[in-house]
Amino acid sequence: MTSSDTVTFDSNRSVANPPKLRPGTLRIVALGGLGEVGRNMTVYELDGKLLIVDCGVLFPEEEQPGVDLILPDMGHIKDRLDDVIGVVLTHGHEDHIGAVPYLLRLKQDIPLIGSQLTLALIEAKLQEHRIRPLTLTVKEGQTEQLGPFSCEFTAVNHSIPDALAVMIRTVAGNVLHTGDFKMDQLPLDGRITDLRAFARFGEEGVDLFLPDSTNADVPGFTATEREIGPVLEQKFAAAKQRIIVASFSSHVHRVQQVIDAAAKHRRKVALVGRSMVRNMSIAEKLGYLHVPEGILVDLKDVEKLADDRVVLMCTGSQGEPMAALSRMANGDHRIKLNQGDTVILASSLIPGNENSVFRIINSLMYLGVDVIHKGTARVHVSGHASAGELLYCYNIIKPKNVMPVHGETRHQLAAAKLAHQTGVPVKNLMMCDDGTVVDLKGGVAKIVGQIDIGYVYVDGSKVGLVTDEDLKDRRVLAEEGFISVVCAVNRQTGKIVTGPDILARGVAETDRAFEEVKPKIAQALEEAVRDNKGHTTHQLQQVIRRVVGSWAGRKLRRRPMIVPVVVEV
Amino acid sequence: MTSSDTVTFDSNRSVANPPKLRPGTLRIVALGGLGEVGRNMTVYELDGKLLIVDCGVLFPEEEQPGVDLILPDMGHIKDRLDDVIGVVLTHGHEDHIGAVPYLLRLKQDIPLIGSQLTLALIEAKLQEHRIRPLTLTVKEGQTEQLGPFSCEFTAVNHSIPDALAVMIRTVAGNVLHTGDFKMDQLPLDGRITDLRAFARFGEEGVDLFLPDSTNADVPGFTATEREIGPVLEQKFAAAKQRIIVASFSSHVHRVQQVIDAAAKHRRKVALVGRSMVRNMSIAEKLGYLHVPEGILVDLKDVEKLADDRVVLMCTGSQGEPMAALSRMANGDHRIKLNQGDTVILASSLIPGNENSVFRIINSLMYLGVDVIHKGTARVHVSGHASAGELLYCYNIIKPKNVMPVHGETRHQLAAAKLAHQTGVPVKNLMMCDDGTVVDLKGGVAKIVGQIDIGYVYVDGSKVGLVTDEDLKDRRVLAEEGFISVVCAVNRQTGKIVTGPDILARGVAETDRAFEEVKPKIAQALEEAVRDNKGHTTHQLQQVIRRVVGSWAGRKLRRRPMIVPVVVEV
Question: Keyword set for this entry (chains A, B) (predicted)?
Fold first, then answer.
């Protein structure tokens, strides 16, 4: 391959502040979702108006201890909220809607645009935040003029019903934003990704295409959800006692198949887990989930039923420690599992969760439970289009420019290479990070700048208070613990009144080890006070920090956090 | 399946202290390696003498922050070290030899028995600990009488050369302990797992069989190492610039294939990483690695070579942050990778390391590096026998009793089910945890007790000082940080002299938030001193802990560690 044939992130590296946006040019900036799977949020700007597509959260990794959620960095738009026309939500998954409450806290009357189910899910979530949003419900085939953006909504198939792609027509050009999708040709609800619409958009001209890249490095085609039903039925037929199925709480079609298999085998179903109960109640009310009369029972009534008449449909398939499945595995749940029960993990295994999930599988197996998971049976299919499906898309749409979104670097590159193989020139592949600024006009897309994008951490009730510095402290505390040294000093006499006292936590040392350093601290402190009575408390604390830090490094071969406290009396 | 057909850990649950061991009965206790992959160590006891097989380490998970290694719990033998005849080391991997230095620190003259390469590797490691061990080098086919244990050593094939199984003959019965193995029928060095010996042992009678269970839940057969060579060659032929191969530092055959491919494509090889350099130098000296004259170069000379003449063979394939590969990905290494370079991860992906490894892959790809890994090409095969191979073993050996070792619960159960399918009755399957006591006599194996086995943590230079309580502290510190409150109190006047001062680290709060709680602390303290002058310092600190803890829970919705310090003046 010559260099012009190689897809890289190169173009992106030398760019700095974007130029002022000219009238009639469309600007696209992702505030999250690039280089990561999560916190999807893309801002379209034209003639002073902003249209946002999706507003999701990212789940933290072990490098971010104590963090609950990570939000898109909204700094880019926070002073321009009055210019926001609305937020299009492509579907109801957390990585696409989870940050909406935090956006609406900044300005409550930003309209939300989405399908019936998507809006119902976000409304339920906003209710917990005591926010009643302005909404506009749209359907596939519908077009809405949102400021300078004409949005046509199109059906796409995904692992949640009622997902939409959006074709955004503007004076600057046409953009097709898929949201998450796959191309199951035999979906349970018959609602396929609308390739006829994609073809029509292609004929008309798609100047910029933003496809879901998540599975771009998976060869072939994602299997149909329909293949799972027979496997579930077979496992249900073989099960002699209770069946517990764990999956995602928004996967309506998966739950539907569990309910259908239960009905066939004359079992009752109890939904377990707050989000499972809430989402399925919404899905049923709106007609997305079909529940035969009398099949659902309350968890508390399960114990009255014979074991071979029970299915528990629960959350916790990713090993979340507080979820029902984990508690059942540890014997901390009212449902006590034992030999002969069957647990089916009808879910993916999200990278990073392997240890937690296998810990649960081992614990269940130790109890004698028969555990079935995607490693042993086809009880899960992905929600994202694989490489083969993306090739269909590129060939039908023939986009002028492609900006792969919704993926890590490796996914974005794979998606770009597929585009290139179908004929998109390398220079028309927008390889972007969060904050990379792409301008589009007259069929030409160009990276014109880069804005700073940080992680915005949610920790408990606090948003954005946890800094990367705090997380560094937490990692040090986790690895090394801390040593606190307390000393009361009389400045007049230059003498130590009390201490030094040492308190250590998380440091693997005996109290005796610390006795050794106390005289060194005392000596250094008294010298410091004697030599220069002008020392500030802070300077005296620095003396302690130096003595203890170098002693711990030398003698203990450790680098704990040193917390010196000098009290002047 | 009837209950007697179901393999479970049941038998194990009700047992308590083992009975006194009678003369002529063989007792088997694993001090590590069951329910986990790592810290393999099995103790055989007969007529007052102990034979140990393997003595390895376990690598910690994210639940064990700051821990470097986890050792087998040697409490069971620590008062009986004079009875230890020796330690048989089946092969030179860390999970089988890594804890030897810690055992020899307890008693330096315990003999080590193993193959030439295995002993060379442990001797190099012991040199760093300044220990010169007593050793007995053995070969396949050789029998040694070790106290009451007659040990015949047998060649097995694994992902390190010179691995041995051991047939232990005693008055109580015969035990075949495989160590780690697979049954590559075309290994690079021609040294296959000796099924003729296994057949002979079977004819003679194997009363208890302890097989490597690691891949028992993987269907079929592990592919031959030989398949990797052509793939490497093809990638080497296509590479236009530098090639970096990452793998395990003990995988002599993998390195051999890299060297062979490099020689064929007229590239020089630099070994990178301390353990890689050390192990390969040992392997070459002993004749396990064949290095063509002049092919190896020093890392510092690599820069003088043209990019298409270079291969770097390095460690870090599991994403270890300090290893060469990770530093290259982050641009922190003297070798600066860029567009057109090729990185091959010729390694497995150990569960739990996914995030770190994919982070490196993403960073490399972002630099424009072509990354090849086992997900995209056959550049790795496992070192362990899959289900198909284990079936061959069971059928050739026809063991009376089976105790699956070297695996998590799910692996042990899979190995046991395979044994059962070949005809081993369920009651003859020893489903054991670490510390489960199995007695063998006259062809009958029985679980007779359970001894307590804990985790022994190595943290820096300290062994066993870190407790589970410390780790709990560390996890709290990581998730929540700490709030330290310092107050100087004059007991005579009952007044606070200085403070309360608050210092928080890792807590996501503004300083202003803490101002709110200070008067509450002061008030509670003064009340406590006023009400009862007999309060100890500890009690006053408890007062602070209560006030701050409940305030943080209520107002901040957090549970940080509270560190109260009261100085009495």
Answer: Calcium, Cytoplasm, Endonuclease, Exonuclease, Hydrolase, Metal-binding, Nuclease, RNA-binding, rRNA processing, Zinc
